[in-house]
Amino acid sequence: MSMQDVLPPTLSGGMPDTAYQAVLALLHEHFSDRNLTAVMAAVTGRNAASVFHDIHACASSKWEPSATGAVRRLLEQHGLQAVCAED
Fold first, then answer.
1. How much is the pTM?
2. Count of alpha carbons within 13 Å of 73, Cβ hemisphere only?
């Protein structure tokens, strides 16, 4: 079974490129690098090695709340709190 087969409908539709780095930055603190790589590669269709590199680039950058605010609000509408509560 592939990751695409188990993604919930809200994730299986993809993600706008403009939100990609902000999503990585927001989710990095809640997922292991390996799990975040697998999910983001499945959602975006990007190569896993590229996603892994992007995760580390985002994690080493300082993100202003204003840069991730809109993406955070959108993710909260789709259950971000439930994901974060499982930490």
1. 0.77
2. 5
